[in-house]
Amino acid sequence: MEVMNSRRKEEDQFHIIHKVPSGDGPYVKAKHAQLVERDQEGAIVWFWKAINAGDRVESALKDMAVVMKQLDRTEEAIEAIKSFRCLCPKSAQESLDNVLIDLFKKCGKVDEQIALLKQKLRMIYRGEAFNGRPTKTARSHGRKFQVSVRQETSRILGNLGWAYMQKSNFMAAEVVYKKAQMIDPDANKACNLGLCLMKQARYEEACPILQHVVNGEIPGSDDIRARNRAQELLMEIEKCRHMSELLPALPGLDLDDDFVNGLEKLMNVWAPSRSKRLPIFEQIESFRDQLAC
C-alpha cells in the first residue's frame, strides 16, 4: 500500500513539474512528447491523433498550432485551425481567433489579421464577446487575471493600429490608436502612437505623448522598457526634424466610414463623464448594427 501511494506521489510530482496532464490518451502522449521528450515533430503526430480521436480537441488544436509555429509551419497551423475549429465548442472560438491572429502576424498576412481584428471588435459592439460576460479570465506567464471588455477593446484596437502600421497606413493607425488610448491608455500604445505621428513627420504632436511616458504619467510607464523606448523615439525626433522636407508622400486614409462612425459611437458610450458601473452590453446594444467592419 505504501509503495502504491509513493508511486502515485511520484507520478503527481512528475505531472506538476513537467506540466503534463495525467492519463494515457493521445493528447497526454502529445504533451509528453512536447514537454518531456522535446520531440516537437512527434508531438504534432500525437496532436493529430488526439484531434481525430476527439480527445481534448480544443487544447490539441491550439497546442499543435503553437508547436507548428515554433517549427515555422505557420501556414499549416492556420489551415488546421480553419479546418477543425468546427469540432470545438462555441466557447472556444474566441481563443482560437486569438491564435489565428498570432499566426497571421507571424507569417505576414496583415490583411487577414486586420479582417479578424475588426470581426472581434464587431463581436464586442454586439455584446457577443466573452460569451456575453463583462470579464474573462486570462493567463500570462502562468498567472491568471481578469480582463474587462473595455481592456479587451483597447487591446484589439492597439493590435489593429499596429497592423495598419505594417501596411504604412499611418493615418488609419493614428485614428485607431487614439481611440484605444481614450478607452484604456497604456505606455506601449502611447509609444506606438508617437511613432505613428513621427512617420507622418508630425514631431510636435509626437513629443508630448512620448514625454508623458518618460515622465511616468501614463499607466504602464513604470516599465523601464517602455520608458527607454519613448526616450529613444524622442532622440530620433531630434535627428529627424531637419529632414522632414525629405520624407516621401504620405499614404491616404484608408478606413471605412462605417467603421470610423462605429468607433465614434463607442467613445460616446464610454465617455469619461459616464459611470463605469453601467452595464457595458446594455450601453452598446443601441448601435450594435451601425458598425460594418
TrEMBL record:
<keyword id="KW-0802">TPR repeat</keyword>
<keyword id="KW-0175">Coiled coil</keyword>
<keyword id="KW-0539">Nucleus</keyword>
<dbReference type="InterPro" id="IPR011990">
    <property type="entry name" value="TPR-like_helical_dom_sf"/>
</dbReference>
<dbReference type="Pfam" id="PF13181">
    <property type="entry name" value="TPR_8"/>
</dbReference>
<protein>
    <recommendedName>
        <fullName>Protein SULFUR DEFICIENCY-INDUCED 1</fullName>
    </recommendedName>
</protein>
<keyword id="KW-0677">Repeat</keyword>
<dbReference type="GO" id="GO:0005634">
    <property type="term" value="C:nucleus"/>
</dbReference>
<dbReference type="InterPro" id="IPR019734">
    <property type="entry name" value="TPR_rpt"/>
</dbReference>
<dbReference type="InterPro" id="IPR044961">
    <property type="entry name" value="MS5/SDI1"/>
</dbReference>
<feature type="repeat" description="TPR">
    <location>
        <begin position="154"/>
        <end position="187"/>
    </location>
</feature>
<comment type="similarity">
    <text>Belongs to the MS5 protein family.</text>
</comment>
